[in-house]
Structures are given as C-alpha cells and as structure tokens.
Amino acid sequence: MPLFRRRPKEAEDPEQIAEEKARAEAKSEAAAARTRRGWFGRVAGILDRGTIDEELWLELEEVLLGADVGLKTAEKILDQVKERVQKEHLRDAHDVRRLLKEALVALLAAVPPRGRLWNDDGAPPPPQPGVILVVGVNGSGKTTSIAKLAHLYGREGERVVVAAGDTFRAAAIDQLKTWADRVGAQVVAHREGADPSAVAFDAIGAAQSRDAAVVIIDTAGRLHTKFNLMEELRKVRRVIERKDPTAPHEVLLVLDATTGQNALIQAKAFAEAVDVTAIALTKLDGTAKGGIVFAIADDLGLPVRFVGTGEGEDDLSPFDPEAFVDALFE
After folding, report:
1. 3-state secondary structure the chain
2. pLDDT > 90: what percent of the chain?
3. Cα atoms in the 13 Å half-sphere on the side-chain side of 169
4. Each residue's pLDDT tens digit, 214-227
5. Around Cβ 236, how many Cβ atoms within 10 Å?
6. What is the mean pLDDT of residues 249-261?
7. Core vs surface per residue 152-186: b (16+ CB within 10 A) or e
C-alpha cells in the first residue's frame, strides 16, 4: 500500500508494496545493528543458561537499561513477561525470548496515532494539502529529515511544497533549497530575518494553489529551554491554524537518537508547546542505545514514525515496529 496517500486497492502496485516493505526491513536492520551488537546481543547468552530465575530477570533488566529503555519502561516490560511466564507455567528460558519480543512489539504498537496523515487504514482520507510542521533542537538533523521526507512523497509521485521557515540563518534557507532541488520539491522562502509565520502562511497558500499533496514547514532549531523561541513556535502554529483551521495535520519532532534520555526531556517540552503528533528519530544507526524508541513510546505516548540511518535522500524510512524488534534479536 502507498505510504502516504489513500488510493483504491485496485490502484495499488504489488511490486511497489513489496519493494517498500523490503526497504523498510533493510532500514530497520541498519537502525538496530549497533544496539543489537552493543546490548541485545547479550540476550541469547543470558537465555542459553536455560533456567528462569531472579538472576535472569536482573540481567535482562541490565540489558534494557543499558540500551536506554529507561527504568520505568524496563520494569513494565519485564513485569509483563514475568506475568506470562507464570500464567503459562513456562520453565524454559528460551520461551522468555519470544515473550520479550512480543512485549516490545506490543508496547510500540499500542501507541495510538495522533495526527491525520499517517494513520492506519481505518482512518478518514487525509486532507490535501496535508500540513506538516517540523520542529526540533539544533543539530538534530531536522533540515535533512525534511528533504528526505519530501523525497519519500516524491517517490510516490506526489507534489511537495517546502517552507523555508528557518529565517534566522541565510545558510539554512540555502541548505533547504539545495536539498529541495535534489529531491524535486518546490520551495517557498522569504529573505533572511523574515517572520517564519509569514513563510508558513504563504507556503500553505502555494500548496493549495499548486494542488500539492503536502506542505512541509521547516522551523529554526531551538533549545527546548528557551522560552521566547518556544513562544515563537506557538505563534507559527496559530498562523497555520488561521490559514487552515484543521492544520497542522502532523507536528513532527525530529530527535537525535544519540542524545539518549535527553531526547525525552526535549520531546516533553516540544509536546507542551506545539502538540507533537509524531517522532522522526535520526542517527539511530549511530548509537548502541536504540532502546530510546521504547522509552519514547511508553513515557510520551508518541509514535515513532520515521527513522534516519544515513545522510542520503533515501536514508529515512517509515518505522516498522515488528521489523525493528526482529532486527534487535537476530
């Protein structure tokens, strides 16, 4: 099925569906590789002893904590596994592996969608143009993630408008234009120092007039602790709502996976400011602590929708919970 637009079943291309599935699985493998080598690779050795005892649970908790799952989430996961072990009267430690995988997948799958563009099949058709507001701290990979997201839409044959809303730096506008040229997106930009809200307003109008599928709105990277800058984000959102009362349809927070538990602090601040609906987790292939995925889902109730695994335009993929967990244990 196409990743973003609702098309009739008869219009779906089985080869494209298979290709997208294979690509998502490959990206999940890449994203999980360092975490598997660093922490989850120990699970097999722990379970090979064959005995389910208190030491086994303590060692599994150590694995989860080391991978940045977080104490509360780690305890929640293991309590669920222990309950099933007792309920099903299991004695073989190898059964714990299956139950642990199922608990991890269930935790990710239980997070409900919050926005209107990336819901499951039962959701109403998405609006057009869909308005995606993209936020994050400096250095998280926000601008490149926007370009990669535009590329994903373009690969589906969709027209994309990108708003160069980071008006504080001329270099940011030029960088976005360069990326947009590479991926075939159209850019709406004002001069350096312009009001980012005006850029967003004009970009939505341009997307409406050009029959674009989506408009992706960049914003300046900002520390979540800076009150004035977070207030500016709120203003951008209010102006978007004036242009389209149903928008933004997604607020995508870009987080750097290598920052670990600090990513949770960032996410909470941005969620309070602009009602984040989804997470794009960048540099997941560059950390052995990919368990942050589970902490985000459990602590914040926010779905991880995309993972970044490199610098190329193809290095962003829709997040597949089952494929990711499978890759952790392979």
Report:
1. CCCCCCCCHHHCCHHHHHHHHHHHHHHHHHHHHHHHHHHHCHHHHHHCCCECCHHHHHHHHHHHHHCCCCHHHHHHHHHHHHHHHHHCCCCECHHHHHHHHHHHHHHHHCCCCCCCCCCCCCCCCCCCCEEEEEEECCCCCHHHHHHHHHHHHHHCCCCEEEECCCCCCHHHHHHHHHHHHHHCCEEECCCCCCCHHHHHHHHHHHHHHCCCCEEEECCCCCCCCCHHHHHHHHHHHHHHHHHCCCCCCEEEEEEEHHHCCHHHHHHHHHHHHHCCCEEEEECHHHCCCCCHHHHHHHHHCCCEEEEECCCCCCCEEECCHHHHHHHHHC
2. 56
3. 13
4. 999 999 887 766 76
5. 25
6. 92
7. bbbbbebbbbbbbbbbbeeebbebbeebbeebebb
Give the start-to-end residue ranges of the domains of the chain: 130-320
User: Tell me: the pLDDT tens digits for 76-126?
Assistant: 999 999 999 999 999 888 899 999 999 999 999 999 989 999 976 566 778
Place of tokens 């160069």: 164
The CATH code of the domain at 130-320 is: 3.40.50.300
Q: Which conformational region is residue 150 in: left (phi greater than 0), alpha (psi within -120 to 50 degrees), or beta?
A: alpha
Q: Strand 186-188 relative to strand 160-163: parallel, antiparallel, unpaired?
A: parallel
Q: Which residue type sits at 305?
A: R
Residue whose pair of structure tokens reads 């303590």 in the numeric block: 58
Task: Please tell me the total number of residues recorded for the chain in this structure.
Answer: 330
pLDDT value for 9: 47
With cut-offs at 50, 70 and 90, classify the pLDDT of residue 3: low
Q: Specify whether the backbone of 138 is left (phi greater than 0), alpha (psi in -120 to 50) or beta.
A: beta
